[in-house]
Amino acid sequence: MSGFWDRLRANVEAKLNKLFDRFEDPREQLDYAYDKLVQQLHNVEMALSRAIAARKKLEFELERLDERIKDMDDKAKRALKAGREDLAKQALERKLVLVQQRETISKRIDEMKQDEEKLLALRDNLKTKIELFKAKKEQLKAEYEASKAQVEVQGMITGLSDDFASAARIIERSEEKISDMKARAAAIDELIATGGALDLLEPEERDAIEKELGKIEMQSQLEEELKKLKEEIGG
Prior knowledge:
The protein is mainly α. The longest helix is centred in the middle third of the chain and has 109 residues, at 85-193. The chain starts with a helix and ends with a helix. The protein folds into two domains: 2-190, Helix Hairpins (Orthogonal Bundle), CATH 1.10.287; 202-234. It contains four helices and no strands.
């Protein structure tokens, strides 16, 4: 029974350890951290893509403003040639407004380019870190799997040692029983060889026989006494 409870406890502990290992498996944690970094890289690339698209849109707007500025400049020249200074002034006023808009957009484009450069540097840095982390992750996973396999082998060896010890105890007990049986058989053979009586009956069976024999003997004695009594009376 002691060996049974030891094996049961060891089995329960093994199952609990396996359950805890599922939730504390460093391989899963490493993969999770790697996936988070990859997601961050994806977010940076998406932000960079949106920034470039927004800058392109402003550059298209800048080209359109350049065309309108040139158009206002041509109209001012045509108005002056036509003697319409008032129309020339209106065209020039619109040109100045467009020029201001162009300066604002151009400044904004320069700022966006700087932001893009920062995002590019961040992306490249993140890519490098991800590659390094991936290599380290695979190395740690391999080391963990090797260590886990080593622990499992050691556990198997320990379990086999326990099983061998248990088997040795069983063999020892069996040998003791066999030795006892051999000794009893030898004693019986010796008793038979010397002509000794061998009572093979169980104690309960011997008691029953003794009772019956006692009854027979008692009956015989009664009959003998009765016979004597009759002889005395008859005489």
